[in-house]
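Q: Sequence in, structure out?
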Amino acid sequence: HHHHHHHHHHHHHHHHKPPTPSRLEPPAFEPTEPTDRARRERGSERARESERPSERATERERKKGEARGSSHATRMSGEIKKNPPELDGVPDLSQLLYLEMPNVVHNLKCRYDQKKIYTGISSILLALNPYQTLSCYGQEAMEVYSSKAKHAKAEPHVYDVAEDAYRALCKSKENQSMIVCGESGAGKSESAKHLMRHLAYTTSKSVIEYLERKGGTTKAVKGSKRRDSIRRLSLSMSSIDASGIQKMANKTSEELEKKVLRILAANPILEAFGNAKTVLNNNSSRFGKFTKLMFSEDEKNGVHIVGSTIETFLLEKSRVNFQTKGERNYHIFYQMINGLDDEMKKKLGLQGGCKSFYYTSQSGCDTVPGIPDKERFDEFMSSLTLAGFSDSDIDGILRVVAAILHMSNISFTVDEKENCDIAAESKAALAKASGLLGVTPEAMAKCMCFRTLKIGGQIISKPYNATTSIVNRDSMCRALFSKMFDWVVKSINKVMLVGNADKLKWIGILDVFGFECFAYNSFEQLCINLANERLQDFFNVHVIKSEQEEYQREAIYWKAVNIPDNQKCLDMVLKKTTGLLAILDSACQTPKADDKTFTTLLFKQFYGHPSIKQVRTLPGTKGRSKVSINGFLVRHYARDVCYDAKEFLLKNVDSTHEDTVNLFRDTGLEVAYKLMHGDVHEEHEKSESKRKPGRGKAKKKKLSIGGGFAKQLRLLMKALESTRPFFIRCVKPNLAKKPSMWVDVLVTNQLEAGGLIQALKIIKMGYPTRVGYKTIYSKYSKVLTNPPPDLNERDFVEALIIAYKFNRSQFVLGLTKAFFKSDQQDFVTSLLNPKNDLSEEIVKGIRSHLVQKKVVRSMAVVKAVARWKFLELRRQKRKAVFAIQALAMSLIARDRVRQKRAATGVELKKGVEALYAMDSKTRKVVEAVCNQAANWLATVSHVDDVPKGLKFLEDAATGSALCQALFVLGCPTTCHSDAQLASSAARDNCTDFLHGCKELGVKKAHLATPDDLFLLKRPLHALDTILNLCLVTKTGIEAFPTVSFELSEAKRKGTASGLSKGMVFLRSGGVLDGMDADRTEELFNPGFIARKREKEEKERQSKIAAEKARKKKEAEERRAQAAAKKAAEAEAERIAREKKAAAAAAAAAAAEAEASAQKQEAIQQAAKAASSAMAAAPSAVVETVKDAAQPMTIRI
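A: Exactly. Output:
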């Protein structure tokens, strides 16, 4: 039979234009809040609107991609070397000469065009999805691989990988694993099924071989018959002839065959419950599974399968109640509706077909091209029987599935008193569902309309509202379905379980959901992609990283290849307390939290992280059709995916409500009870009583979905790391699911994301086959009858390899292992085969090589001795010649020294002449500075006779004094105290001195060169260096007046901090170059400026005092004048007043006189009388008159 690649007949484009939805719920009860379904429907409406143009765009993009691919190839052909045409389509990519991506893709395409979908990269298998049925499967093919000779290199194939794993298990007794990975729709599940079939086949084969070995005609005849039946069995599992399987199973009661068949029977069962059609893949696994096939070895049957366990990961529960347009629910629903006979259909109430149930009609897609539901259903039913399900179990399973469909049609009414009830038109559906599940309609209605709450120890019932009743209905259906899935897996495992499972060896086949990216990505997609990310990391580490580290450890020369690393992304999601899943858990535990709480926490933690960024609008929507989401973008290894956080919290804690569990306490349907409560009634009672007291605690410990998945993933990786892995990388050649269509860009992206080019390079350049020296030595060293005493393992292995006529380029010897190129694997395998013996010829070869090596080594010793003797002779001969030569040389050398010295002398003379030829003003300045320097130096270095004046510069004694000074200042230098002028010793002194100055902190700008000091090339520079040295030393010696003066000046101006860099003194532009008269005087007469300033200050002070006195005097005078002026003014005023009074009096008198002339007369008369009476008493009269006159005046 040909095997059908079931999910390969996809005859439509990636983007679908789904028909309009048909809703079965009465529109009156449209939920008020957008539920999962309603919202996603709206989302897909939007997606549809935006997809029509984008479908064309994708087509356009694809063509552009193809065009770009071809133009890219032509453009690159200049830079990238192409492989010769005879290498087109080689079965193993490591045979290519040039490994660049375009070359690899080209080779894969050549093979794909010849319908060869498998290509090897050493031990990695690349499988391209052909999207059609091929003839390379079946009995003959399996036979080819299982009977291939140990060294034969067959065409790459999944059977080949399975065979290798089986042989590795037999030989090494280590667990093996086969990891099938790739994107959604690349063909992983199919590959996994083939692997399993082949392993089942090897087992039956090993049994037959055993029987044939035992001999005996009757047995042999029986054997051949049995062989046929077994082979037919293992093949017919891939065919659809279910009744045939049934018949054969009845015929063969043999235990082993039953086991093998049971293992294969698990596939159709799990596919029915866990696979569905998605946009990317017509038969997509919506769960992950890791199947361990247990092997045992005994005398009777060889290494054979004795059982298996299946571990499943993360079934996508939300699919039960919601599918996007163009996708289907799980296959089982459609298989039952199309596959049951009329009688059963009637019994289960499925006569109406897919369109009559909400869960199978909402997406508007109920058939899949290439998947015949009816035939699949027959296969499913016979597989159930094979896998050990009883008839009552099978009946129960069908009833639960049918009941879920009926439950999906139940709708609700809510009256004005907030009471919830089943809508009248749904009563029939309720009755049917409850009947199928073996509970009363009343109990079911109560569970669907009310929820029980415990408040203060009392149990109360609270009705659901229009929205939550539907949410609860869906949750019940999801719980039923996922619990059933778990129970089915558990039951299969129970049948397949073997007693001492821990002691058995196993081969694991990992088939997880592929990497996927839809228009709407939720929590499931994150988990799916995370699993793929983790596997990719495992691949990178295993194939690439571990190789490089091994080469380093074994000290083999190796040029590193850079490793694609996605650790950042994994840490970001999986870290124990700060990862995305941990943050999600803590958001779920926060009261009143929603998805905003979660994303806020997330970006607080990962702000600016390279693997994640916030997204607020749905990618690909803008302008009027812009869709706002609360999302985030994750950089996965394959591509960036945008997730919508909307349902993350809900999906992370999707637990079954207590009421649902309790509903099935007293069900009449045993299966329904087992789903919810485990197998036996008593068991449940026990666990229940145990759990009662600490219920609060038990609840808290329950792992969230995300946490549970992360834990499962950790355990899985631990299991895989303990095995020897084989990788099968599945690749999609196009998105349209069409046969023989090839899109370069798509394949390139998948290869790049999978790190396959790096892996290929390492395998090609490296030495993948390796074996320890110890292993070979302990196995074969006995062949040498009398081994040399100093034989070591490495030499022996080298001898052995060379005896087999190996070329040095095919192997390399490390510290503890021999490494071989990839094409030498079979040689090593045969070498390690316990039955393998070395031929006489090889033993001879080993001996001769070891002898040769010994000879070479001993010859090396002989040669060394001979050489030493020869050299000794030559040495003596040469001695004589050397003596003559030496004499001649010394004469020449002496001559040279003399010449050099003379030349130096001339230089020095020139320098001295130049020094004395300076104009008198400069010379005077330099002399003064020299004197100061000499004094300072004498003080610092405690050398008495430091030369003064210009002699300071031209005397060799200065050099040694300078070195002494440095010594004192804490920078010891060697000093030649008796250095002659212009000698090398003097030069050394100068060099040492300058080096010391630098050490002590004189900056480079102020350092002279040795010649400036030693041959007086630039005497001023030399002096500047000494001055700067004085400037940077912090000693208490004030013996260099010019420097102290500059320091004090800087302090006065506040620029002292700048002096740490040093300063220019004598050189042009320096402070001593072109000085004014005062500064010159200061130089020759230190303290002059200070004294001058002091004098000036005194004068200034006395001037100020005189001024003060003058001002004081003036002020006093001014005060006196002011006082006098004031007095004068007062006097004048008084006089004026008096004058005024007198004038007034005069005027009054005149008036009176005029007014009273009579009075005057009277007075005159009186006076006359008085005068006449004067004679008698003159004085008294006068007094009287006076007295009389005065008052009168005043009166007027």
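The longest strand covers residues 302-313.
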